[in-house]
């Protein structure tokens, strides 16, 4: 007679799946560097040989924020003009632009959304070099694309994407480095540092107490940190339902600054490098308005804020810091949601694969 399985006492805890997937991130990053990097470099080498004249990036949701990060990499590291596509021009309006020698990169965790598949197919028919970056090499998107990069994150069951986001960032970084003939060595520090950040969850839990009753939030950054600000806002909205508005620091000064007061909290993602330097005038203005300013960034910046979380940026290249920046913000979304009595594993009205057309 077979003994009955012992029930898992943690199986019904809110946020159990999201917490487990966040904890996997160091292992996922290590796997990409050890096992995925050669294949990524090979794809990059073959695409570089075709000398694309510019790049179009296609994505939705969290993957759209990863694509925005790739846009910064491609324009800064390669000097290659990039744009973010509007899929409805193809799927709804039937436009068929000439995409000869254009690299179209489609980023999607599942690779299953019909509009992503349709727009990628149309791009390939219009002469584009098509690359899918997904967590599913057997997906319809991978099938219609000429090239594919597997981000190797493993199954992701929680509705809020965490490990697939950081995996996408690292895969895109290694791809861009491959295009320019680099070896991606600056990324080698990421798995260990990611593990150190996850071990500081108690710090984030203390920070989360500031936002338990927040009615809205503003998140800002510049440069490589701007995709982090957008992704953090998305995570907070889809888990805790707090309206979180993300702005480039430059855009924040062009009007939205007027809504900032000493009640609505502002989170600033301060990348250690040129992006952080460009954000400095914005931080000065926010402090001048008496904003409840929380900084995610270097210790020198956190010391000047109302509160914050110090990132281990010393010796870390600016272009790979976004892989680390988002981790405490993922933890923050998780902790705020738990504090508000909600379950981050099951946001209302959302599905894991969103089938837009």
TrEMBL record:
Keywords: Hydrolase, Repeat. Gene3D superfamilies: Glucose-6-phosphate isomerase like protein, domain 1. One of its GO terms (molecular function) is hydrolase activity. It is an enzyme of class 3 (hydrolase). The keyword Hydrolase applies. The keyword Signal does not apply. InterPro entries: GlmS/AgaS_SIS, GlmS/FrlB_SIS, SIS_dom, SIS_dom_sf. Its EC number is 3.5.-.-. Residues 43-185, 207-347 form the SIS domain. PANTHER family: AMINOTRANSFERASE-RELATED, GLUCOSAMINE--FRUCTOSE-6-PHOSPHATE AMINOTRANSFERASE, ISOMERIZING. This is SIS domain-containing protein. It comes from Streptomyces olindensis.
């Amino acid at each position: 007679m077979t003994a009955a399985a012992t029930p898992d006492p943690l199986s019904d805890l809110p946020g159990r799946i999201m917490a487990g997937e966040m904890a996997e991130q160091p292992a996922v990053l290590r796997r990409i560097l050890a096992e995925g990097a050669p294949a990524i470099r090979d794809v990059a080498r073959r695409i570089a040989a075709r000398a694309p004249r510019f790049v179009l990036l296609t994505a939705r949701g969290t993957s759209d924020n990863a694509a925005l990060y790739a846009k910064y990499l491609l324009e800064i590291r390669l000097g290659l003009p990039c744009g973010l596509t509007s899929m409805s021009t193809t799927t709804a309006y039937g436009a068929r632009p000439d995409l000869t020698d254009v690299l179209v990169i489609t980023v999607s965790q599942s690779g299953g959304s019909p509009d992503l598949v349709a727009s990628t197919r149309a791009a390939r028919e219009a002469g584009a070099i098509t690359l899918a970056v997904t967590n599913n090499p057997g997906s319809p998107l991978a099938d219609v694309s000429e090239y594919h990069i597997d981000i190797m994150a493993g199954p992701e069951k929680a509705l809020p994407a965490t490990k697939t986001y950081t995996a996408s960032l690292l895969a895109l970084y290694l791809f861009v480095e491959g295009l320019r003939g680099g070896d991606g060595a600056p990324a080698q520090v990421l798995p260990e540092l990611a593990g150190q950040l996850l071990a500081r969850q108690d710090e984030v839990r203390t920070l989360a107490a500031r936002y338990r009753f927040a009615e809205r939030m503003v998140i800002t950054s510049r440069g490589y940190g701007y995709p982090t600000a957008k992704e953090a806002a998305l995570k907070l909205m889809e888990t805790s339902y707090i309206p979180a508005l993300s702005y480039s620091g430059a855009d924040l000064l062009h009007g939205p600054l007027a809504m900032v007061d000493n009640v609505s909290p502002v989170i600033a993602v301060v990348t250690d490098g040129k992006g952080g330097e460009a954000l400095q005038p914005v931080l000065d203005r926010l402090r001048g308005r008496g904003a409840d300013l929380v900084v995610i960034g270097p210790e020198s910046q956190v010391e000047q804020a109302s509160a914050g979380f110090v990132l281990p940026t010393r010796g870390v290249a600016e272009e790979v810091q976004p892989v680390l920046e988002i981790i405490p913000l993922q933890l923050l979304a998780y902790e705020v949601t738990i504090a508000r009595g909600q379950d981050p594993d099951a946001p209302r009205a959302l599905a894991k694969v969103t089938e837009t057309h």
